[in-house]
Specification:
By secondary structure, this protein is an alpha/beta fold. It starts with 5 loop residues before the first strand and ends in a 16-residue tail after the last strand. The longest helix has 12 residues. The protein has a single domain, classed as FAD/NAD(P)-binding domain (3-Layer(bba) Sandwich), CATH 3.50.50.60. The protein has four helices and eight strands. Bound molecules: flavin-adenine dinucleotide. Flavin-adenine dinucleotide binds next to α1, β2 and β3.
C-alpha cells in the first residue's frame, strides 16, 4: 500500500528547516510554512555544539559549516579589565564546536550546496498557520 509522503512543517526556523531536510533525505515530501514574509538575518552568531554538529554531519553539511563558520577551540570569559576569568577547552569532543552566523546556518540548511535541494523544502514565507488546530490520532482539524 502506498503511504502518505507529504509532511507539513510549521515554522521555517533552524528546527523546521533541518527537519525538512532530514525528512527529504529519507523520501518524504516536506513543505515548510513560515509566517514571516521573508528570511531575514536574525540575530548574530550561534554556537553549534557537538550535538548540533553531529546533526550537520548526518545531513552531509559539516564540511560546508566549517568553511563558512569558525572552528571554536575555547570558551574564554574575561573581566572588563581583560583579566581571564575562565577558559574552557571545547575541542575535546569527537565532533567540532563551530561559531557561525545565523544567516549562514539558515542558508546552509535551506539551500546547502552539494545536496539534492528540494524546492518543497524551501519555506513558503508569509504563510501563517492558524493556531487552534486540534490533533488526534486520526487527523488534524
Ligand atoms: C539570543 C539567543 C542566543 C542563542 N544562542 C544559541 C547558541 O549559541 N547555540 C544554540 O544552540 N542555541 C542558541 N539559541 C537558541 C536557538 O536560537 C533556538 O533553540 C533555535 O533557534 C530554535 O529553533 P526553532 O526552529 O525550534 O524555533 P524558531 O527559530 O523560533 O523558529 C520557529 C519559526 O516558526 C515560525 N512560526 C511560529 N508559529 C507559526 C505559525 N503559526 N505559522 C507559521 N509559522 C510559524 C516563526 O516565525 C519562526 O520562524 C539562542 C537563542 C537566543 C534567543
Amino acid at each position: 500500500m502506498q503511504t502518505a509522503k507529504k509532511i507539513i512543517i510549521i515554522g521555517g526556523g533552524i528546527g523546521g528547516a533541518a527537519t525538512a531536510l532530514a525528512l527529504h533525505r529519507v523520501g518524504f515530501e516536506p513543505v515548510v510554512y513560515e509566517r514571516t514574509k521573508e528570511l531575514r538575518e536574525v540575530g548574530a552568531g550561534i554556537a553549534l555544539w557537538a550535538n548540533a554538529t553531529h546533526i550537520l554531519k548526518n545531513l552531509g553539511l559539516l564540511e560546508e559549516a566549517l568553511r563558512v563558520g569558525y572552528l571554536t577551540t575555547n570558551y574564554q570569559f574575561n573581566s572588563q579589565s581583560g583579566k581571564e576569568l575562565v577558559n574552557i577547552p571545547v575541542d575535546t569532543f569527537e565532533l567540532p564546536v563551530i561559531g557561525i552566523h545565523r544567516a549562514e546556518l539558515q542558508s546552509l540548511i535551506t539551500k546547502g550546496k552539494g545536496i539534492a535541494y528540494c524546492i518543497q523544502c524551501e519555506p513558503e514565507y508569509g504563510a501563517r498557520v492558524q493556531e487552534g488546530l486540534k490533533q488526534s490520532q486520526e487527523n488534524v482539524q
